[in-house]
Design a protein that fits this description.
By secondary structure, the protein is of the alpha+beta class. The chain has eleven helices and ten strands. The longest helix has 37 residues. The two termini are 28 Å apart. The structure holds acetoacetyl-coenzyme A. The site of acetoacetyl-coenzyme A has 25 residues, from α5, β3, α7 and α11. It comes from Lottiidibacillus patelloidae.
Length: 379
């Protein structure tokens, strides 16, 4: 057993940490306040080769593994969770299904420009009436000649409006339930494809979350992703890996909050000594650090399993469940360490606490992770 990151992974971490601290962190608070997405940051990530970390070079990727990808999401989220999820949705939710189920032509046409960062990806599964019960979707796609005509809407779409390439799921055979669902690739600008309400959110406020709408939107048959009728499987398998990306985001948020709390606790003096040297705070920091470390290990383990081609669905759900919960706990404790100051916008910990909450909700709520894990453990 080897817990050592490779030299390449260590170098990647250092490179991303420099980029995150110098280019992403300085505007994180302002972008959060203004609910402003900055495409330039995505473009900079593209220049650094971060927009296609796990895809082979033949598709414009960096040819690295999923541990490297998790390190990237973690380091970005350590300073700005919105930037972390931009990369995560782009890579895990849009890139992964195209890489895994796409034809060679689809990979060259869609995955390559995404990996090169010329285009951004998004994923559309959730609908107003179907969240946890993803199989209950109502969006339809009917074959008409050589085209499918899509009607319906999807909500809570991360990267919505900004992304150029959307992996969306629609019912092609209503009689067959989950087996009557198909995945499609839809490009921004396709007639009948438009953007609806932009959500105003508690956290990850500089990541755009939009409704996407299909009104007689015609997409060519060639844009079917995977087999007709296999869409639910594509959606579920995509989430298996996506959840690990969210775990990495949660680890990053928790680490960012822990680092801020440690720095503050060493500086802040009460009763004649730094609060870090007082047991109430020192022990809290010990618990926070232990939780972050455990969450990171689970997260990297799931990513390693996927990279090795071994089953990883259970570990991925576990990493998301555990890391999401500890991110919420650690960020709440970080606010506590800062006391009254932590509750103000003068310090970043209130943002970390707001950002952490979503990791317990999206890509399957914690309750859905428990459902997935319990089914796998007991089957
Ligand atoms: N891999 C492969 N196949 C899978 C699978 C997986 N992980 N999970 C399910 N399937 C298959 C099953 O084998 C079954 O196929 P068969 O009938 O051939 O056996 C079929 O899919 C139906 O499966 P279930 O009976 O398990 O389906 P279910 O209705 O009970 O639902 C669920 C399962 C786990 C609850 C699922 O609906 C689910 O994951 N819900 C949560 C949805 C979710 O995570 N949404 C997040 C949206 S994306 C988001 O948040 C993105 C963002 O913007 C960041």
């Amino acid at each position: 057993m080897n817990f050592q990151l490779t030299e390449e992974q260590e170098m990647l971490r250092k490179m991303i940490r420099d980029f995150a601290e110098n280019e992403v962190a300085p505007t994180a608070e302002e972008r959060d306040e203004e609910e402003r997405f900055d495409r330039e940051i995505f473009d900079q990530m593209a220049e650094l080769g971060l927009t296609g970390i796990p895809w082979p070079e033949e598709y414009g990727g960096a040819g690295m593994d999923y541990v490297a990808y998790c390190i990237a999401v973690e380091e970005l989220s350590r300073v700005c969770a919105s930037t972390g999820v931009t990369l995560s949705a782009h890579t895990s939710l849009a890139g992964w299904p195209i890489y895994t189920f796409g034809t060679e032509e689809q990979k060259q046409k869609f995955l390559r420009p995404m990996a090169e960062g010329k285009k951004m990806g998004a994923y559309g599964l959730t609908e107003p009436q179907s969240g946890s019960d993803a199989g209950g979707m109502k969006t339809t796609a009917k074959l008409d000649g050589d085209e499918y005509v899509i009607n319906g809407s999807k909500i809570f779409i991360t990267n919505g409006g900004e992304a150029e390439i959307y992996v969306v799921f629609a019912v092609t055979d209503p009689e067959k339930g989950a087996k009557g669902t198909t995945a499609f690739i839809v490009e921004k600008g396709t007639p009948g494809f438009s953007f609806g309400k932009k959500e105003r959110k508690l956290g990850i406020r500089s990541s755009p979350t939009l409704e996407i709408i299909f009104e007689n939107c015609r997409v060519p048959k060639e844009n079917v992703l995977g087999e007709v009728g296999e869409g639910f499987k594509v959606a579920m398998m995509t989430l298996d890996g996506g959840r690990n990306g969210i775990a990495a985001q949660a680890v990053g948020i928790a680490q960012g909050a822990l680092d801020a709390a440690v720095d503050y606790a060493k500086e802040r003096k009460q009763f004649g000594k730094p609060i870090a040297a007082q047991q109430g705070i020192g022990f809290k920091i010990a618990d926070m650090a232990t939780k972050v470390e455990a969450a990171r290990l689970l997260t990297y383990q799931a990513a390693w399993l996927e990279s090795e081609g071994k089953p990883y669905g259970k570990q991925s759900a576990m990493s998301k469940l555990f890391a999401g919960d500890i991110a919420m706990e650690v960020t709440t404790d970080a606010v506590q360490v800062f006391g009254g100051y932590g509750y103000t916008k003068d310090y970043p910990v209130e943002r970390y606490m707001r950002d952490a909450k979503i990791t317990q909700i999206y890509e399957g709520t914690q309750e859905i992770q428990r459902l997935v894990i319990s089914r796998m453990v007991t089957k």
